Amino acid sequence: MRRFAAVVALSVVVAFVVAGCGASAEEKWAGSVCSDVADWKSQVQKASDDVSSQLQSPQAGTLAAINADVRSAVSATEQLATNLKATKPPDTEAGKQAKQEINALSAQMATTVAKAKQTVSSVPQGASLTETARALAPLASSLSSLAIAASSTLASVKSTASEIKKGFENAGSCKQFQ
Fold it and tell me: Which of 30, 32, 73, 136 suits 83 as a labelling partner, its CA being 20 to 30 A distant?
């Protein structure tokens, strides 16, 4: 009976390993990074779409709505930078290199956020819609550049080492970036 139980237990363990039920450290890390970037991208895209819509059909409260959308994009960017810094990569040489690239992206995000806050605060109280749009226009290119930087950083990190690349390929939340 003991032998039967041991054979069953061994079979379960072998089946679990063969099925690949456990995600690697690289896959877990890549999944977390991709999930955070996807959330950020979605929030920034929504804010950008809302601003465009507000500018196309201005009405009472348009300026306040635009400011709220810009603040939302800034907040999402700050959150992404925080999340990326907090996410621990695999404890490998490739993981350390990948973390350096992610930290560089986080620093770039912090710089963009600081500029965005400065730009928003520079819009005078009572500014017209035209003045506000002119003052906030540079934010669109800054956020667009940041989105490009995020994509290129993910591509660069993905090519760091075969284990990291495999993690990005296997993580479900990274499929949208492939």
Answer: 136
